[in-house]
């Protein structure tokens, strides 16, 4: 993605020029995507604070894991029979570069980072934003990407494993937006055990509605006539489990559950699991 | 993007060809290197270096960085006479290795041992080695008396 390495048969304009030009367009689109998808968290103060209070090892791990995540996204959002691992890896690092630059530029505009701060504070604040920014840059290819006929062109047939991966990516992205906020903790504290149970049921219901919508759209890899329980078990339940796992990973990365009693952590997990579930389900529809 | 389909087609053929002819034939390599603009390689390299550099930096900090508790150094930057009294501007630097949340800073104006005025403010977050600027108001001229600064406490974030 990010690149339209177009080639022209005409002799007047060199193919390199066209390739470079369409790469520039792709890059601009990637910046747009990074901004659209990460502005809400760029403007969340808990994210700034996490930049210096987060455990360095966990932040480093998050950055490292974002590389295979982006490579996978590039693979599944790429065009049919795209150009293999090298291109996907290239796209992933281009997206990361965009994520870093967009994050640093926006945060310095907001005066969240400045010269009176230590290097580790600046690095922390920027790199934690680079992850959602680069995912946004990658999404941009799918959503902002230009011409008609794209949908047909692009939808690479993702097998069951691919579907699960896309769900995980969607869950991670939405969890990223919500996990750092105080509100998430507050909601969990306000809810009774019955609220939690209701929230689990509603999460499952919404996920299944999305699964059904995909079936309806005819893009899912579910053959017609598959019994309800089979779809429910293989997509909805598994998808929700993935959403919870991604939520747990985000909570651990951000250190949100430290020092909390087990049942409190669990209710926070259910609260975060709700947007993650929606993200997981919607990702299959969007990507 | 319109030309992409055509190109994709071309590539697909190319990969088929290479599959037939055995991977890594000369012409195939040439086509590959032509297809990716140099700028993409450069931007991707920047991305790679950022990820590698930041990861390395974070791990270095984690392993060798100091894990000492917050240690707040306060110093008077300036004393300004305002229309409504006096303003003491203070710089606060955390010389420890951990972030302090809700640092309470207090300044007391004394005449010998007799306390005259006390003002305090709170710093939301004071990350390690970072500097924050604060201001405390007084009604009497701090230049005339003894001014004592101290931080009272903090919370771990």
Class by SSE composition of chain B = alpha+beta
**Low-confidence region ranges of chain A:** 1-10, 146-154
Q: Identify the most extensive interface between protein chains.
A: A-B, 62 and 46 residues
Which class best fits the helix and strand makeup of chain A? Answer: mainly alpha
The global form of chain B is elongated
- Separate helix tally of chain B: 3
Question: How many distinct folded domains of chain B?
Answer: 2
Please provide the count of β strands of chain A: 0
- The second-level CATH architecture of the largest domain in chain B is Sandwich
N-to-C SSE string of chain B, H for helix and E for strand: HHHEEEEEE
Strand content of chain A: under 5%
Distance separating the two termini of chain A: 13 Å
User: Biggest β-sheet of chain A, characterized?
Assistant: none
Number of strands of chain B: 6
Mean pLDDT of chain B: 79
The CATH superfamily title of the largest domain in chain B: Lipoprotein YajI-like
Number of helices of chain A: 11
Strand count, sense and barrel status of the largest sheet of chain B are: 3 strands, antiparallel
Terminal-residue CA separation of chain B: 48 Å
Report the uncertain regions of chain B.
1-33
Using the coordinates shown, work out and report the CATH topology of the largest domain in chain B. Immunoglobulin-like
Describe this structure as you would to a colleague:
The complex is a heterodimer of chains A (287) and B (157). Helix content of chain A is 76%, strand content 0%. Chain A has 287 residues and is mainly alpha-helical. With 157 residues, chain B is an alpha+beta fold. Chain B has two domains: 2-64, no CATH class; 72-155, Lipoprotein YajI-like (Immunoglobulin-like, Sandwich). A three-stranded antiparallel β-sheet of chain B has the order 1-2-5, with no helix packed on it. The chains are: A mainly alpha (287), B alpha+beta (157). Chains A and B meet through helix 1, helix 2, helix 3, helix 4 and helix 5 of A and helix 1, helix 2 and helix 3 of B.
